[in-house]
TrEMBL record, chain A:
InterPro entries, sorted: ATP_synth_F1_ATPase_gsu (IPR035968), ATP_synth_F1_gsu (IPR000131), ATP_synth_F1_gsu_CS (IPR023632)
Compartments, record wording: Cell membrane; Membrane
Protein role: Produces ATP from ADP in the presence of a proton gradient across the membrane. The gamma chain is believed to be important in regulating ATPase activity and the flow of protons through the CF(0) complex.
Designated gene of the protein: atpG
Signal peptide boundaries: none
Chief location: membrane
Protein name: ATP synthase gamma chain
Protein keywords: ATP synthesis, Cell membrane, CF(1), Hydrogen ion transport, Ion transport, Membrane, Transport
Subunit architecture: F-type ATPases have 2 components, CF(1) - the catalytic core - and CF(0) - the membrane proton channel. CF(1) has five subunits: alpha(3), beta(3), gamma(1), delta(1), epsilon(1). CF(0) has three main subunits: a, b and c.
Superkingdom of the organism of origin: Bacteria
Automatic annotation (TrEMBL), chain B:
Keywords: ATP synthesis, Cell membrane, CF(1), Hydrogen ion transport, Ion transport, Membrane, Transport
Positions of the ATP synthase F1 complex delta/epsilon subunit N-terminal domain: 6-87
Subunit structure: F-type ATPases have 2 components, CF(1) - the catalytic core - and CF(0) - the membrane proton channel. CF(1) has five subunits: alpha(3), beta(3), gamma(1), delta(1), epsilon(1). CF(0) has three main subunits: a, b and c.
Protein name: ATP synthase epsilon chain
Entries under CDD domains matching the protein: F1-ATPase_delta (cd12152)
Compartments where located: Cell membrane
Keyword Cell membrane among UniProt keywords: yes
InterPro entries membership: ATP_synth_F1_dsu/esu (IPR001469), ATP_synth_F1_dsu/esu_N (IPR020546), ATPsynth_dsu/esu_N (IPR036771)
Domain of life: Bacteria
Main location: membrane
Summary of the function given for this chain in its UniProt record: Produces ATP from ADP in the presence of a proton gradient across the membrane.
Organism encoding this protein: Actinomadura alba
Length: 301, 133
């Protein structure tokens, strides 16, 4: 076998096994998307109820004064929570989040604020470490399958930092995550988490909240509900990001498989050509040799 | 009114734990236990972190018990939503694990808020599972 042919066959083998791996990863991601979507769906009732309750609470009180609703332009520190993934193989998933965060931080700096980074996911953490940037707090190890405790931990920390007195206190908290729009589209979103803006989940006929009595009082209810609401928002974002991560992985792995298969075609054609060229050469060598022999023996007679 | 029932949903952030029709729900608020029957006025109550919620379903003789953590419940138009960040049905509780958690919380060196809550939750777990605590 000629050197060129051997090299090509080697490459075909490599590309084939790569295609097998990426194909398998594509299938794994596909099955995980379904699971992640189910979790998003299962979390909807809680989000709906808590939003309704918070809306009811706030709309009932004419002058709600709660620290979590306070806008204080004097506070310069602004937190940016980045939700990235722990692992790669997901195309531009993390790059998009990081790009968006750079834009947001630049904007905050222009407004005279001091952005502080809180990061979820190894990829984001490494990106910051590599550039020697300060990270206020990091959480890793659960980006693919978050549990509510994680949202709770993150929420507690952010709320505590938001309420902290003096220099350390945060003036606002932004979150950058990836919303799962559909199997094909995932959009990077920037949301302000605190001070709270209550998002309307449904604007329908029963939008007028009932006149609740509060047990024990509206103030305690607010104290308890608002942090829970923040945690529920973070939970929602973690779930959305996890679903988006798998969708991004699936797409990246699909195009990797497609590319590998295309390469395989090119290499196979080249290998065939090389093989044929080798055969042709061999035949012409044999024919040439035979002719030379025939001529030599004809000359000697 | 009498023929109506309460629509109950016991929900945690991760999923809906239990939902169905009930005739009586008992929950513990910070100020005391509260029983809710059909036709109750709209109320929004804060649950004791680490307490037991009991539900009497329409089609069963047995009460359903569940342990709840930090959360609240809202009653409006015969619909009750019990929302808790931690919630487990009594029938799904791992008694041995709950007892271990209780022991750990009781023996903890420092008596800070965290261990107190952990102890209350462990006790609520055991009570919801029908054990002594």
């Amino acid at each position: 076998m000629g050197a060129q042919l051997r090299q090509l066959r080697q490459r075909i083998k490599t590309v084939k096994s790569t295609a097998k791996i990426t194909r398998a990863q594509e299938l794994i991601a596909t099955s995980r998307i379904v699971k992640a979507q189910e979790r998003v769906k299962a979390s909807a009732p809680y989000a709906r109820h808590i939003t309704r309750a918070v809306t009811a609470l706030i709309s009932h009180q004419t002058n709600v004064a709660h620290p979590l609703l306070r806008e204080d332009p004097e506070r310069r520190r602004a937190a940016v929570l980045l939700i990235t993934s722990d692992r790669g193989f997901c195309g531009g998933f993390n790059a998009n989040v990081l790009r968006e965060s750079e834009a947001l931080m630049a904007k905050l700096r222009n407004e005279g604020k001091e952005p502080v980074a809180y990061i979820v996911g190894t990829k984001g953490v490494n990106w910051y470490r590599f550039r020697d940037r300060a990270i206020e707090e990091e959480w890793t190890g659960f980006s693919g399958a978050p549990r509510f405790e994680h949202a709770e931990t993150i929420g507690r920390r952010l709320v505590a930092d938001f309420l902290a007195e003096g220099e350390e206190g945060l003036g606002e908290i932004h979150v950058i995550y990836t919303e799962f729009v559909s199997m094909l589209t995932q959009a990077v979103q920037t949301r302000r988490l605190l001070p709270l803006e209550i998002e309307e989940v449904e604007a329908s006929k029963d939008n007028v909240p009932p006149a609740y009595e509060f047990e024990p009082s509206a103030k305690t209810a607010l104290d308890q509900l608002l942090p829970n609401y923040v945690e529920s928002r973070i939970w929602h974002m973690l779930l959305q990001s996890a679903a988006s991560y798998y969708a991004a992985t699936r797409r990246a792995m699909k195009s990797a498989t497609d590319n590998a298969n295309e390469l395989l075609g090119v290499y196979t054609r080249r290998a065939n050509q090389a093989r044929q060229a080798e055969i042709t050469q061999e035949i012409s060598e044999i024919v040439g040799g035979a002719n030379a022999l025939a001529e030599a023996s004809a000359g000697s007679e | 009114m009498a023929s109506e029932t309460l629509k109950v949903g016991l929900v945690s952030p991760e999923r809906e734990i239990w939902s169905g029709e009930a005739e009586h729900v008992i929950a513990q608020t910070i100020e005391g236990e509260m029983g809710i029957l059909v036709g109750h006025v709209p109320v929004l109550g804060i649950l004791v972190d680490g307490s037991v919620v009991r539900i009497k379903p329409v089609d069963q003789a047995e009460w359903i018990t569940a342990m709840v953590g930090s959360g609240f419940f809202s009653v409006a138009a015969n619909e009750i939503a019990v929302l808790a960040e931690q919630a487990e049905l009594g029938s799904a509780i791992d008694v041995a694990a709950a007892r271990a958690a209780l022991d750990e919380a009781v023996q903890a060196e420092s008596r800070d808020d965290e261990t107190v809550v952990a102890e209350r939750r462990a006790r609520a777990r055991l009570r919801a599972a029908g054990e002594e605590a």
